[in-house]
Write a structure and sequence with these properties.
Layout lengths: L2 E6 L3 H10 L7 E6 L2 H10 L4 E5 L7 H9 L9 E5 L4 H9 L4 E4 L4 H55 L8 H15 L4 H10 L12 H4 L7 H8 L1 H10 L6 E4 L4 E4 L6 H12 L20 H16 L10 H10 L6 H9 L1 H10 L7 H5 L5 H6 L3
Parallel strand pairs: 1-2, 1-3, 3-4, 4-5
Antiparallel strand pairs: 6-7
Helix pairs in contact: 6-7, 6-12, 6-15, 7-11, 10-11, 11-12, 12-13
Length: 388
């Protein structure tokens, strides 16, 4: 592929001389000419040039103006520019280099010098283009790898949340629905995108502490005795400890890659939110919840959001001891118990109950293809619910 070279000079005779001088390179170079900066900028807008050779002194806008204009755009900032000058003014040459000129060439121009300088900057441009192409390829690979890691992280989180639910009768897509409810609630509350995504990932682990509850209590069909009820409620504490407790004096060394890290140094913000939710999703705004009887804003916001999402899903799903309630019945029941919920969160919920209903239908327990649904991505609830 031919290289495109643009010469900018206000002297037609000089440009004609350059044309004759470079005649032998026409098989490799496509040579263009402009008589002023305005014409040069028009040409640059049409063709991706590989190098520009411009006189510094021209009527109207000069070579410095051209350099400044080229630096304003990402598309042209990396085009090598050779500045031509008939002066020996060192300040002028220094200024040209400071404004982005790649090289300088004095008039009168000798063919050997011109060819050597142009070939040099063309090699530079080729290297730049190769680096740019490699950067684009690397960024694409990073995006793909990040997407794979996000997908793997979501899969692990869902399976971890599922591990607890397989121990009782609350199987199906409960954890995915709760994550979706929490995300759309966070968005309605105008929380940051980072918070909304994190609560989507953290909330499915809200009942992980059920792993530590004995089967005799967890699977008991009848009413729990007081001591059994206390044991059952301890799943919040167990979940918080599972998610938040840091390993002591544990180091992992990956010496085959000359890389090592200490587990305690890893950013655990996701697990911290998951632990908050595990500990507080049964707390109530009026202080009547457990395990600590927290009230109002003493309950973490993530826990207040997850508490409402968990109750909504429990009411909307059928159980051996109850039918699935309709959206209208669910809203009525929750409204009568509104003192249990943060009023701000409940008001947001009322505004987007249609989105909750959509999520409930989209991830119904009749749909067993949980992994396929999860594959859509972290923003799946937002993308789909936007149609409601």
């Amino acid at each position: 592929m031919k290289k495109h070279i643009l010469f900018v000079d206000d002297e037609p005779n000089f440009l004609e001389g350059l044309s004759r001088m470079l005649h032998g390179e026409r098989d490799k170079w496509e040579i263009h000419f402009a008589n002023n900066v305005g014409q040069a900028l028009e040409e640059i807008g049409k063709i991706p040039y590989d190098t520009i050779i411009s006189d510094v002194s021209m009527p109207g806008r000069n070579g410095f103006d051209l350099l400044s204009k080229l630096q304003e755009s990402e598309q042209t900032a990396d085009i090598p520019v050779i500045i031509l000058t008939g002066r020996s003014d060192l300040d002028l040459k220094r200024r040209a280099l400071e404004q982005g000129a790649t090289d300088l060439l004095s008039k009168p121009v000798h063919a050997e010098d011109l060819l050597a300088r142009v070939r040099s900057v063309l090699r530079l441009k080729t290297y730049q283009d190769e680096l740019k192409a490699q950067k684009v390829l690397l960024e694409q690979k990073v995006r793909e790898r990040t997407a794979q890691l996000d997908k793997s992280r979501l899969d692990i989180i869902l399976r971890l949340g599922k591990a607890a639910e397989y121990r009782d009768e609350e199987t199906g897509n409960h954890i995915l629905r709760v994550g979706c409810y929490c995300q759309v609630l966070a968005e309605e509350l105008r929380m940051t995108p980072e918070f909304a995504e994190m609560i989507f990932l953290a909330s499915p682990m809200h009942d992980i502490g059920k792993i530590g509850i004995p089967d005799g209590i967890l699977l008991k069909k009848g009413r729990l005795l007081e001591a059994e009820r206390k044991t059952m409620q301890s799943h919040c504490i167990i979940g918080g400890e599972i998610l938040l407790e840091e390993p002591k004096n544990v180091k992992v060394f990956l010496n085959f890659r000359d890389y090592h890290f200490t587990l305690g140094e890893i950013d655990n913000s996701l697990l911290e939110m998951a632990a908050q939710i595990a500990l507080s999703h049964h707390e109530k705004w009026d202080g009547s919840g457990y395990p600590k009887g927290l009230r109002a804003e003493d309950i973490p916001l993530s826990g207040r959001i997850a508490a409402l999402a968990d109750v909504y899903d429990a009411l909307r799903c059928s159980r051996p001891y109850k039918p699935a309630y309709s959206p209208e019945q669910t809203l009525d029941i929750m409204g009568k118990e509104a003192g249990h919920f943060d009023p701000m969160v409940f008001n947001a919920f009322e505004k987007i109950i249609g989105k909750f209903d959509f999520i409930n239908n989209q991830f119904s327990d009749d749909l067993r293809d949980l992994e396929t649904k999860a594959d859509v991505g972290l923003n799946l609830p937002c993308n789909d619910v936007a149609r409601v």
